[in-house]
Every structure is written in C-alpha cells, then in structure tokens.
Amino acid sequence: MNVPTSQTLAASAAPPRRLPRAAMAIAALALLALPLAFRGDFVLFLATQALVMMLVAIGLNFLTGYAGQVSIGHGALVGLGAYTTALLMVDAKWSFWLAAPAGMLVATGAGLVMALPALRLSTWYFALVTLTFAQVVTDLLVEWRGLTRGFSGIVGIPAPALFGRPMTPREVYIAAAICVVLAFWLVRNLVHSRFGRGMVAARDNPLAATASGVSLWRIKLFAFAVSAAIAGLGGAFFAVQKTVITPEDFSADFSIFFLLCIVVGGLGKLWGPVVGTLVFFLLPELLGPLQSWRLAIYGVVLLVLMVFAPQGLMGMPVWRRWQRTLPPPPADGELPAVHTRVAAALPLVLQGLDKHFGGVKALEGCALTAAAGRTHALVGPNGSGKTTTLNVVSGFIRADAGQVRLGDTDLGALAPHRIAQLGVGRTFQTPKLLGEMSVLDNVRLGGFVRERAHAVEVALALPRARRDHDESTAEAMALLRFVGLAGRARELAGDLPHGQQRLVEIARALAGRPALLLLDEPAAGLSMDELDRLGALIQSITALGTTVLIVEHHLELIARISDQVTVLDRGKVLAAGTPEEVFRHPEVERAYMGREGTGGSA
Ligand code: ADP
Ligand code: MG
Hints:
This protein is α/β, with parallel strands linked by helices. It has helices at 6-9, 19-33, 42-66, 74-90, 96-115, 123-143, 145-148, 169-191, 194-204, 206-211, 216-242, 252-265, 272-286, 294-308, 317-323, 386-393, 416-421, 439-446, 455-459, 463-482, 498-511, 528-543, 555-561, 579-584, 586-596; strands spanning 161-162, 165-166, 348-357, 360-370, 375-379, 401-406, 409-410, 424-426, 516-520, 547-551, 564-569, 572-577.
C-alpha cells in the first residue's frame, strides 16, 4: 500500500479565498439594485434591456464557453422565445407566466434541432450552420405573415400581470433580475458538477471525455438545451420589455452582440457574460458626446483587449487566484476507505482479433485471457499492436474480426463511452489530461460514471447532488493520496511533469472504480521512486478486485507485478505464460529483448 510521504501529508495548498467572491456577489447585488434608485422609467428601461442581454449571454457562455460550441445564431432562439411569448399573450390572451415557459420550450426545441449538425461538424463549420439557421428563422418570421404579421411585427405586447394587474416597469425589472440571478446560479451549479467537467472535457479532449464515460453527443445536446431554454426566457422578457417586436430585432448582428459580450467578458468564466454585457451596454452610454467616434473607439477597445486580455476581462491573470477555489482537502480522519472493492472481479477474454490499417496488419488473431483480479502484461516491440489491442478493448477502434468479452458482456459492438460506463478504465500512451483543469478536477472527471444525481438535482443543488459532489471530491483526494500527489491537487494538470501526469491519469481511471483497468506504458518517464510507487499501486489495485491489463516495456516491473504475460510481434501472439516462462522463450529474446534491451523504458 502507499505510504503517504511528508510531501503528500503537507497537502495544505492555501485554502480557497472566499472573501472576494462574497464581495463580488455583494457588489453585483448592489449594482442590480442601483437602477431602482433612479426616478423615471428611462434608466429602468435600459437596465431591464441590459438584464435581458445578460441572461442570454449567460446561457450562450454555457454553450460556447464551456461546451465549446460556437453559436452565431443565438439571436434566433431569443427571437423564437419572444415571438412565442408575444403571440400567446396578444392573440391567445395567455398569462406571461405560462407564455414565457412556452417560449422557452419552443426555443429549446429549436436549439436541439440547431444542435444536430454540431454532433458531426467541427466548430467553425458548425458556427456557419448556426448562422444559416438564424437566417432561416428571421426569414420565417417575415414570410409567415398569417402568424407573425411579417415586417410590421407584433405590437401591443402587454406587461406581465401580477395579482390581476399589470406589473410596473420596476416590477418587471425585479423579475428579470431574479431570473438573471437564478440563471447564473443554475449555470454555476452545473459548471461545477460532473456535467461541467464532462462538457469541458468534451471540448478540450474528446478522448479523455469518452474514456471517462462521457457521451459526447449527449453532453453537447444537454448544453444546447440549457442554453436555448435560457435564450427563450430572455426572449420572453425581451418581448414584454419592448412591447413591440419585429423580425429585424433578431438579425445577425443581434446574435453577434452576444458572442462579443462573452468573448470580451471571458469565455468559460462564470462572470464573463455579466461583465461583458455591462461593458457593451455602458460603453455607448458613457461615450455620449463621442457618438460619431463610436466604431473607432470600439475597435481600439477590442484591440487593447486582444493584447492585454486575450482570454477576456474575467480571464485576466488578476482573477486567476480567486478562480481556483476548490474545497480544502479533507483532513486525515475524514478520508473514506480509499477505494472499496469493485463489485465483481471480471476476466477479460480476447479471441482472434484482427485489425488492419490500410496495408498494415496491426493485429492478426490476437488472443489472450486476463484472469479476474490479476495483472496481465502485454509486451512486444514498438508497432507490434499493443496499443491497438487496448484501443479495441476500450472501443476506440473496432476490430475487423474477433471477440472481446469482459465477464459475460460482449464489448465488441459498444461505443467507447458505454464501455467506460460498464467499468473499463484506461490510460493513454501519451497522458490525456485536461491541462487547464485542476489535478483534482481531472480525477473527479473519472468519477463521471459513478455520480448519480441528474441534471435537475445538480442545477438546483439538491441533497443528492451535494452528496455526489462531496463524495467525488473526497474520493478524488484519497486517490491522489494513493498515487502520492495530494499536495498538487489544486495545480493545473498541465503544469505537472510528464511522469506525474501519468499517475494523475491512473487516479482518474480509478475514480470510475473500474472492473478492468488498461494501462498503456505507465512506467514511461517515471523516476525510480515513482516506478516503485507504481508497482505497489498496481498490486493494491488488483488486490481490490480490479483486473489489470498493462502494456509495458519495463521488464523488471512486469516480472515483479504480473501473473501472466502475452508477447505480441507484428500483431500475432508470439508467446504467453508466466513471466519466467515467457522471458526464457528463445523467440521472445530474439524478437523482443534483442531489439529493446532489458529493463529499458522506451
Ligand atoms: P504498439 O503500441 O505495439 O507500439 P500500435 O498498436 O500502436 O503498436 O501499432 C501497431 C501498428 O498499427 C503500427 O504499425 C502502427 O503504425 C499501426 N497503427 C496503429 N494505429 C493506427 C492508426 N490509427 N492508423 C493507421 N495505422 C495505425
Ligand atoms: Mg503503443
């Protein structure tokens, strides 16, 4: 078992600084209350408008900033929300409180339709699709005159009613403010949950996301749905606030405005859309006498931002120290049992695997049986098909022929995220961590498949979601202790040296409590110390019931920890047996040791 070193015990990175966040929240609330102090309705009108924009920007940031899906058509979703609300209120005499949810529903439906191409296209092609989508929607608003009244739009949209009387502008402003605060809070809860980690992983490293059990299309659709629903709500307020809406309100520059807000504010920063919207709203007001210079000033501001804050205002380094707020590491006494036994130890059986890439036969009849709860090593020269074997088992590559069975389950036809969900964890030959995420969050990503709270529970911070959060954090900390990296939990994973990244990746795989763990050259780049730790680690992993299939060049390590070894050469099994049997095999010496030398870590 792993004995914590003095370094890991001193795992007390500075506690998160909460004060500035509280200060920020208080400042925001004060700012929200400010427009109420003005007499007359003009300031309220502007402020309500700003809130509507902020609401939409918060939703767009969820989609574009976190899930990485650039939408240049978001204005159209706002338009659909606005038109649905307005038509239901004006023509059908619905109450705002029913019409607005209907607007949200319509926008969500449209958002999901808009999302479908995103599942296939790369970011920028997809952005163009959203632009086209927006164009189609505005055309529809013009052409479907019978319903939408064409260019002249819908007039006389009444104020929402409260207790049987129309709300005053102040009350509408307060309602919009409540919605903004709510949306901010919901988005915050989601972003800090497994859904947020899954979205960021899907954005930055789809392989890592998939290997952790994240379904890329589901998580993207989810981001679209949330974002579109918020856009629809923004549209509902837009309609009652302006009282007149026309198709021109929702043209392309309307969409681009939101994109500018979140880019200037800082993509993927919680406060980014808030700050960005304020900048774009206040700037023209402050520029009053310089109106004719407006475009030039915008240009200069954008240029200055690109130079000094390429990550947006909220992405500037000054904020960084406040942003990495993670819960403090649990004290020794609070640690749960690191890792309870896996439910059932399962054997892995590979039979007759063939795989070729063009003319290259990567696998030819590859077969092996890894006994349940044991360590099975896969060795062979470079290019002999070891990584391909792991890719076939984890579903990243479909074999041309052959069978993969884990216990009674045939993995052959399953998608990789399904295989991960069934309890297959893996690491990659080159570690695939989320470099911009903390080490701790990287490990928590591995718990994606084990957390149970669904999105609504998470968004509302209901008890099960809070329990998931606490447990996954405690378990990730325990696993980091297990691999000897608890002291670095708060650092960005990308800042760790290569060898430590491998250990973090192992911890991430373990967070899913896998029945089968696939390790691709885990010893490469490790120091002697880390190598010892790795050996002990793998032994304790199998002791907990996990089956381990390890690809490794480091023969001493193999001899020490593995029960069985399979030697591959050009995709074929050259020898199999216990380490002693295999390493004495003359052909193995010729094919493998002759070329690689012993004990090297290639
Ligand atoms: P190993 O991990 O044993 O070094 P690999 O399984 O990575 O070997 O590769 C086996 C063979 O298959 C090599 O010749 C490699 O070039 C080829 N190969 C592996 N993956 C691909 C791929 N995605 N496309 C084309 N050829 C590949
Ligand atoms: Mg390889």
